[in-house]
């Protein structure tokens, strides 16, 4: 099975019939494999390149500097995550990667109860500006993808957008360092896992490693394709759709050639519903099969998944 490439520009610029046709392509991809490449997603190559350059500069900082921003708890889910700190596959050793998580930026003038703020280093204005601009761009892209999902699933076009209007999304910069140490049994760069939320946008460099598991249990490579972004559905979308859309396991394997001595960089944007959103089976997804899951709040689900991986 191949991961399909879908041109998203006709959806953002086309008429109703064109949008419906693209939504149907997305439906097929989400139903059959849970992964797709979106071509022309509305993010310029220049903006992607600029963010990757800033990410590389950040991860090149000394460890003691990055640790000043150390990730501290599941509720905030922000800051720096060191190598082997996270285990995406709880049965395997810690992942050979480091990460930096950013959520929605809130101003010190905002009066938000229990306000959660991002962690930034002083004198890193260019880094902060580039990261937040990319966060904003991805937020706009996922809104349009969520509209396509709604059309595909025969619910009002703004159904998912409203359920995500608090923008509880996470932008994650990822670095997989060169590997020179002895590996622990079963250790990889990112363990086999499914994503927790609604949808994920993934940007990756040319150092391959991402693999996606098909329904037959086979692992297939998902290389970087210029001009596209990888999009996959997460656990909550699978739950919402009663498995009409599937949340597929994926991993980042360790290269078996000279790339084991090269850094790998990627950027993930995790789209998550409002914390108080009730995730209950959509009526259009229970016509043939009864609901598999009881309703759950999105926030409760996210906290339980994060607690299991740290």
UniProtKB/TrEMBL annotation:
The keyword Amino-acid biosynthesis does not apply. Keywords: Iron, Metal-binding, Oxidoreductase. The keyword Oxidoreductase applies. InterPro entries: DIOX_N, IPNS-like_FE2OG_OXY, IPNS-like_sf, Iron_ascorbate_oxido_reductase, Oxoglu/Fe-dep_dioxygenase_dom. Residues 167-273 form the Fe2OG dioxygenase domain. Pathway: Antibiotic biosynthesis. Gene3D superfamilies: B-lactam Antibiotic, Isopenicillin N Synthase, Chain. It comes from the Bacteria. Belongs to the iron/ascorbate-dependent oxidoreductase family. This is Isopenicillin N synthase family oxygenase.
